[in-house]
Fold this sequence. Notes:
By secondary structure, chain A is mainly α.
Amino acid sequence: MTKNVTVHRKRSFIEWLRSRDGQKVLVMIAFMVVPLLLLLVFTYIPFAETVKFSFFNMKYVGVRKFVGLKNYAKVFSRSDCFGALKLSLYYMGGSVVQLTLALYLATILSFKVKGGNLFKGFMFFPFLINGIAIGFIFKFFYTRGFVFDTVLQWCGFELENLPYWLKDRSINNISLVGTSVWRYFGQNMVLFIGAIMSVDGELYEAAMLDGANRFQQFKYIILPSIKTIFVLNVILSISGSLSAFEPPFVITDGANGTGTYFVVMHEIAHTQQKVGLASAMAVVLLLIIFTVTILQKLFFKYVFKNSDA
Amino acid sequence: MNALEKAGKIVLTAVKYFSLVFFSFFALLPVVSCVITAFKDDYEYQNTNVMTLPQNWLNFDNFISAFNKAGMGRAFLNSTIILVCVLFFSTMFGTQLAYVLNRFKFPGNTLIRNMFLFATMLPGIAMQISVYEIMYKLKFINTLPGYIVLMCGTDVIAIYIYIQFFENIDVSLDESAIVDGASYFTIFYKILFPLLKPAIVTSCILKGVGTYNEYYMAKLYLQDKNRLSTVATSLYTFVGPLGSKYNLICAGVIISMLPALIVFILCQKQIYAGLTLGAVKG
């Protein structure tokens, strides 16, 4: 840009504005100023503020006291903060189930199946339901003697032997993870189908003619075609598990040992108004997510040397 | 084909359809049980099993009563206003930004792209701690416009869909228009914008469903429940004393998801295409 300006310096500013270069700069400014402003105000300033807040003892309104690293010490010492990250193991387990299931169903649906579109629609639809509705649906679903218990009784289970799905601490986190699998497996499946379909159909025909069986087709055609998107989803699912929030937030409100890290953080920030401590929690988790993401990228780069993932 | 192969094929087909039916059942069961319950009157709800079909499939009393109790008329109006504004502005800003990033080479182009990409890594819930303070300072809390501005912010997926689309529109189209003396504004609005229509439809559907379903920020920033509830947050009416009247709650839940269902039935293809396009950004 500077180059153009020097070349045209002899012309007046108005003239320059009317020239092609001037037009270009005008359009660029006009088209980028709002999105960049929004990005700045709602992403980057909050990001910087969060880091700043984490060193203060403060509420949203009122005096702020600089406390150094005390908030960070609290994050690691309070039993309800860092310990809550253990729960993310449940969600990681859930995403393994979810991705496997999605891959399996996507493979089935990418071959000719009667009513394939209908099945796909049924399994995808949960993704489009709003979070609060999902909360109510599953409170209802898991209530003692209601939907889930009834279906299990059809299968021959006795009600007395069934746990309280949302209260029993040995099972309630698994119940919640189940809702997350329920919501997202269809969406993952659609992504995988999209990737599989992007492969030229002639490849399958050629493979069939060469006598390749279904498993060989899966291994040599389907798997390579979805590698990128699969790796991407694995990466997303790990950071997603660390920041698991929605199922406990809308279904159990974090009660009975289901409060994940973010549920605890939300409670501390918006109910208890300990903004500094919550910010420190946010920063700690962000650092963990960055580290994990970078490690994963390096790992996958190392494992699939030729991959662009 | 020998008998063994034939048998194998039959088993394979059986496994295939069994899996599809089983997981479709798994996906639909929670929703279907809700539909069943929504049609039961109080007596029936208390005295029959939840999976027993209702006696009268035309009993819409729960729906009417849920609609009124949760103030859903107002909520639908608010959600519509939010949806129209958010879609209009985010389409305008998104396409314009994508145009500049795709068509103009300038120092900082890659930096801006990376800034948007990096923003996707920051989990929204964590960011809301300090966004709340900014919203407070801007006096945006408890106002529809404030919430709308917030929702118009970074939508990287849409920007990526637009950039990809621009890449497939031949630059010679721009160049010949420049030769004809058209300004950049004219090129964008008269020539390129109309060509973007499929991409705009796709990303509007995705963004629309996302905006309609958004509840966390709506809960934080639209606290005045009588005046400012959206369809999603209006369901909070059923927390508390009404919390065990599931026939009423299920009716409310179903009303709230009807618009998404209708959009899904009408625009399945665009939704699938949009998700796939948005996901391969990596």
